[in-house]
Each structure stands twice: as C-alpha cells, then as structure tokens.
Amino acid sequence: MKKKIYIAGCGGMLGEAFYAQFKDDYIIKCTDKDVNDAWLSFLDFRDLDAYRKDVKDFRPDYLFHLGAYTDLEFCEQNEDETYRTNTMSVENAVYIANELDIPLLYICTAGIFDGNKELYDDWDTPNPLGVYARSKYMGERYVCENAKRFLICRAGWMMGAGPKKDKKFIQKIMNQLKEGKKELFIVNDKDGTPTYTHDFAKNVRYLIENEYWGLYNMVCGGQTSRLEVTEELLKILGLDDKIKINIVTSDYFRETYFAARPACERLLNRKLNIRHANLMRDWKIALKEYIDNYYQGYLE
Ligand SMILES: NC(=O)c1ccc[n+]([C@@H]2O[C@H](COP(=O)([O-])OP(=O)(O)OC[C@H]3O[C@@H](n4cnc5c(N)ncnc54)[C@H](OP(=O)(O)O)[C@@H]3O)[C@@H](O)[C@H]2O)c1
C-alpha cells in the first residue's frame, strides 16, 4: 500500500520538485499559504490548531515541513514574523509529528555558518550572522533536540522550478538577461554550493526509504562562487561572448542586499558520502539540466 506524506509549505521552489518526486508512488497532501497550483490546498502552518487538524485528518506516515520565509532582507526587517514562521512553526511541526509518532523532515540552510571556514561538513558548528539564518538554525536545533524521528537536510544555493517560482540567483540573472542587459554586475566575494531541487528531493527520498534519520548536508557536487556560477550559466546559454561581467564586491549591493551573508557557505556532504548515500550530481551538470528543462525559449 502507498504511504502517505503531508507536505507543508509546498508552494515554492523546493515544493515543486517534491511534488514531482513523490506524487506517483506516495499519496501526498501538499499545502501552502500561497495556493499557486492546482495540487495545493491552503494551510498556514503558523496556526498550530489548523496545522494539527489538517495533518491529523490526513493521517500521514511522514510530515515534511518545507516552507519558510526565504527573503533575507524581509527577515531582517520583520524579526518576530520570521521567528514565528521559520522557527516556531517548526516547533508546531515537531509537536504534530511526535503526537502522531511519525518522522519529520525539516530543511535547513548552508547560510547558518559564519563563513570563516573554506568548507563546512555536517559536524561543524553553526554561527548564524543574520535573522534568516538564526531563525533556520533555531528550527534545526529544536528538531534535533525534540523530534522523536527526524531528517534534517541542509541545502545550499537553491536552483529550481523555473521562472514561475525561482526567487533566487539564477532567476535574478535570467531576469536581467531577459530585460536585454548586456552587462552584469557580479560579486567575487561569495562562495557556496548550488543545490538543484530535483537532486535534493531524490536524495531526501533515498534517505527516507532507507530510514537514515538524522542531520545531513545535501548540496550538489563541487565548490564554487557566484562569479563562476554566472560564467557557467552564460556558457550554457551561449552568451559568454555577448554579455560582459563586471566584477564587484558585495559592497556594491549593500543597499539592496543589506542582510549579512557569510563570505563562504560551501558545504561538504560528508555524512552522505560515508553512508554511500550521496545522489547529488555535480552543480554544472545540474545547472545545465535546469536551464534545458525550464528556460527553453525564455530569452527569445
Ligand atoms: N531558496 C534557497 O536558496 C534555500 C536555501 C537553503 C535552504 N532553503 C530552505 O528550503 C525550504 C524551501 O524553500 P524554497 O527555496 O522552496 O523557498 P520558497 O520558494 O520561498 O518557498 C517557500 C514556501 O513556503 C511558503 N510559506 C511561507 N510561510 C508559510 C506559512 N506560514 N504557511 C505555509 N506556507 C508558508 C511560502 O509562501 P509565500 O511565498 O506566501 O511566503 C512559499 O510558497 C525552506 O525551508 C528554506 O529555508 C532555501
């Protein structure tokens, strides 16, 4: 018999890939406060009573808590709302999963580190710099300390879902290219690891099905920078000779992106490697597949 998964906050970039990964072999209920697809229904997970009722009525085998506020500048300016959404709603999810005695999945971020190291493995000590990162780290800690059975996967620079839902770096660059910009301003002081949503969802499924509970770094292979990602993107698009990259420091964007960001948020999937459970492909391969699958004709 098919197992059941309740997926909360499933209307965003990552939710799109989770829907695709799990819809055929599981019975899933996908909710969000932004009901932007026919397969979503409304649930605001800040409302504990409503969250508890909706999950319990569905009687799932797993609870996936995906959603969060992911705009770092919004989070800096709306602290209480951020902790309510990104931290205390995770506490709600832990209560519900424990009451039903089911495993909980929570998504954390590479952004919880302070950037003073070159590379972070699963056991490095987080030291969040801003409100978003702190809110996510406090969610992670609550799950670790209180959930009976859990999986926490830390993602890096997310890419996925295409123009409709991608709110992050790739879409921001694609927007500029679509607007006809002939030059881009790209920082050379931010290092990280891209994370393709479909690889991530597949790897989560592998861990769940093998019951490898616990905390895992889960990013694509290779370590890179905003600058190198942009260069690779232009190459894939065949625009490397046509678009000029102006290299700047983060100071150039200090008014737009005023939230603190670590200089380095590169993760190493050490635990996945040791378990022989690392299904994450190299970021360049994943980026090419992402562009091929989601941006055909986008710039025409
Ligand atoms: N994006 C990244 O680069 C990144 C990197 C590492 C980890 N993560 C983590 O990955 C997870 C998924 O993020 P994503 O990239 O898919 O972000 P996303 O595209 O912003 O999607 C998050 C979804 O959660 C929803 N949501 C927010 N508050 C909610 C609430 N109270 N009740 C129900 N739904 C709510 C959002 O709705 P609204 O649009 O209405 O707010 C949005 O549809 C998050 O936990 C995030 O922290 C993201």
Which properties best describe this structure?
18% strand, alpha/beta, globular, 11 helices, 300 residues, binds NADP nicotinamide-adenine-dinucleotide phosphate
Explain this structure to me?
With 300 residues, the protein is an alpha/beta fold. Helix content is 40%, strand content 18%. It has helices spanning 13-22, 48-58, 72-77, 79-100, 131-146, 162-165, 169-178, 197-210, 226-236, 270-274, 283-294; strands at 4-8, 27-32, 40-42, 62-65, 104-109, 150-155, 157-159, 183-187, 191-192, 194-196, 214-217, 224-225, 244-248. The mean pLDDT is 98. Bound molecules: NADP nicotinamide-adenine-dinucleotide phosphate.
What is the topology?
Elements: E1 4-8, H1 13-22, E2 27-32, E3 40-42, H2 48-58, E4 62-65, H3 72-77, H4 79-100, E5 104-109, H5 131-146, E6 150-155, E7 157-159, H6 162-165, H7 169-178, E8 183-187, E9 191-192, E10 194-196, H8 197-210, E11 214-217, E12 224-225, H9 226-236, E13 244-248, H10 270-274, H11 283-294
Parallel strand pairs: 1-2, 1-4, 2-3, 4-5, 5-6, 6-11, 7-10, 8-13
Antiparallel strand pairs: 9-12
The structure holds NADP nicotinamide-adenine-dinucleotide phosphate (NAP).
